[in-house]
């Protein structure tokens, strides 16, 4: 049979007929990290594939058929979720995804139907699936895409987001990092103080919060899933990043900065918009399957600049454990979240992390400096450094002058 791997792209010839599990074992592929597609349909590990089959093995890290029966309706299953000890047909799987999102939203008071919500979309499976789920559930939700300037990858990502918005009749706000802030993500390879992925993440968080505030949204939603959150938690624990641990949650309330001098100048200070992660109960494999079943086109390939990202190594380690002990990732993350919520661990650092003041350059919220000096947010410091490196600093204006609002596009 002809086996095509996606991300990384590879071609293999495997003798058949053979069950899916044996095909994956022969190629040394962890079943928890991929979807197997035959004749345009998902197949589970017990499905026997004929010798002349053409099969796609699609990686779901972004970093069954046979005798399997759907838990809900007892029809033949197309996907098994080991940590739920369940298998689902296509219709029941969609219900499963919505039920997990509902449980996440209700369990953490993330959203209400009165809220105006904006989803950060990248063109990947998780963010587009989240937008789709929330629209289907009846929420008032728009999208926001930030162009990162990564050549054809960014062009393809933007096209995918715009096409999805058009198909759903939804509003998509589009901003370009280079146009609004003077540098693109590939330029950050010149920066020795912060990794490319670090600058990218910082830029996306900053632009997302700004758009949410400028456009009057009540909440920001991101497509962070179970794998994302568990791997981030593992990294923070391994390095004992206590301030990060104190802030890691799936629902972060809005924050109101106070003037750095303790006074008030009569102007309302920008705040941190509420941020929620409704997919935290669902894994990457589930979100890839959701997109395939719903016919949502997404960018399968990884960002070409992601090489060396430590989070991917943490995901790989957790997937190895998960393969032997299904449910480990969920127990790890959910246990931590329960203890944070119930015990406010660690309270001292959580209080410090919650304090924010307006940045002296762009007026967006930032933690107060330890030395009591002039508060400048991490993005403004990074942007100033990047513009100096690129020799693009505007004449006669602060390096971090806030951009004007862009028009929404749909």
Question: Descriptors for this entry?
Answer:
7-stranded mixed sheet; globular; Rossmann fold; alpha/beta; 410 residues; 18 strands; 39% helix; Ubiquitin-like (UB roll); 2 domains
Short description:
By secondary structure, this protein is of the alpha/beta class. It contains 13 helices and 18 strands. It has helices spanning 20-26, 90-107, 125-136, 151-168, 177-181, 196-214, 226-238, 242-247, 284-294, 310-324, 328-343, 347-354, 378-390; strands at 2-6, 10-13, 18-19, 34-38, 41-42, 48-49, 54-59, 79-81, 86-88, 116-120, 140-147, 172-176, 219-221, 251-252, 274-276, 357-358, 365-366, 408-409.
Give an overview of the whole structure:
There is one protein chain. The protein is of the alpha/beta class. The chain folds into 2 domains: 2-89, Roll (Ubiquitin-like (UB roll)); 93-409, HUPs (Rossmann fold, 3-Layer(aba) Sandwich). 39% of the residues lie in helices and 16% in strands. It has 13 helices and 18 strands. The chain has a 7-stranded mixed beta sheet, sandwiched between helices. A 5-stranded mixed beta sheet has the order 2-1-7-4-5, covered by helices on one side. Strands 3-6 form a two-stranded antiparallel ribbon. Residues 257-269, 347-353 and 393-410 have low confidence and may be disordered.
